[in-house]
C-alpha cells in the first residue's frame, strides 16, 4: 500500500512536469532533469508491475523508461516530444490510478 501511494504521488508530480514541458522556452538542462525524473518514476512503476504480475504495464513502462533515459537520449523533434510528453503524462496518471485501485481491492 505504501509503495502504491508513493508511486501515485511521484506519477502526479511527473505528469505535472511533463505538462509543464509543453510550454515553450525551457532550457536544455530542464529537459535533462525531466528525463532523469521520468525514467526514475518509470523504473519504480516497472518494479510495481513485476509485483502485480502485470506484463502489459511492465513492457509499457520499460518502453517509456528507454524513451526517456538520460544516458542514451533518443533524439526526437520538438513537435514529436509534445505528443510524447502529453501521452506519457496520461499513461503515468493511469498507471498510478491502477496501482492504487489494485491495492485497495
Strand content: under 5%
Strand/helix succession: HHHH
| Mean pLDDT over the full residue set | 92
Number of continuous helical runs: 4
Provide the low-confidence segments as ranges: none
The main sheet comes to:
none
SSE class: mainly alpha
Report on the structure:
The structure is a single chain. Helices cover 81% and strands 0% of the residues. The chain has 105 residues and is mainly alpha-helical. It is built from 4 helices and no strands. The chain is globular and about 45 Å long. The model has no long low-confidence stretch (mean pLDDT 92). The N and C termini lie close together (11 Å). The protein has one domain.
Give a short synopsis of this structure.
This protein has 105 residues and is mainly alpha-helical. It is built from 4 helices and no strands.
Amino acid at each position: 500500500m505504501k509503495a502504491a501511494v508513493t508511486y501515485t504521488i511521484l506519477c502526479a508530480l511527473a505528469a505535472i512536469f511533463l505538462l509543464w514541458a509543453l510550454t515553450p522556452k525551457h532550457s536544455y538542462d530542464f529537459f535533462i532533469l525531466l528525463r532523469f525524473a521520468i525514467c526514475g518514476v518509470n523504473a519504480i512503476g516497472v518494479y510495481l508491475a513485476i509485483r502485480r504480475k502485470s506484463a502489459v504495464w511492465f513492457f509499457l513502462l520499460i518502453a517509456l523508461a528507454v524513451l526517456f533515459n538520460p544516458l542514451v537520449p533518443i533524439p526526437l523533434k520538438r513537435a514529436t516530444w509534445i505528443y510524447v510528453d502529453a501521452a506519457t503524462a496520461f499513461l503515468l496518471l493511469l498507471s498510478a490510478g491502477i496501482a492504487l485501485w489494485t491495492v485497495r481491492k
